[in-house]
Amino acid sequence: MQKILMVILFTSSICTTVSTWAGKDDHIIIQEAASNQVKVAEVKHLKDETAVTLKGTLLKHLNEDHYEFSDGTGVILLDIDDDLWKASHIKAGDKVQVVGEVDTHRYKPTDIEVVKIEKVMD
């Protein structure tokens, strides 16, 4: 009986840890970000995992999933997964709206983990 209890406790602790790592679902981020449109200059003052919407210009592709973005108040790095990027048909120089989460780091600049990107017209 004790072994079964130990297995149950161990399994539940692993499940709790995995769900903590996973973070919020994309649809939750999109809902929260809808009412939180910010400027790049404001992002550095926000908490990690804050859902945000940004509008501006995609400046350039830096490497792998990393892109440079500006809205006129500053420049920030966007982390856009390859599958999301390919589906968007967006290129450097396009005006875009980005929805994602603030991702703060200890030893590198804050960036945005993008969950949705779309081209916008002026």
TrEMBL record:
Keyword Signal: yes
InterPro entries documented for this protein: BOBF_sf, CarO-like
Keywords, alphabetical: Signal
Entry annotated with the keyword Signal: yes
Pfam families, per database record: BOF
Protein name in the entry: TIGR00156 family protein
Species of origin: Acinetobacter bohemicus
Taxonomy of the source species: Bacteria, Pseudomonadati, Pseudomonadota, Gammaproteobacteria, Moraxellales
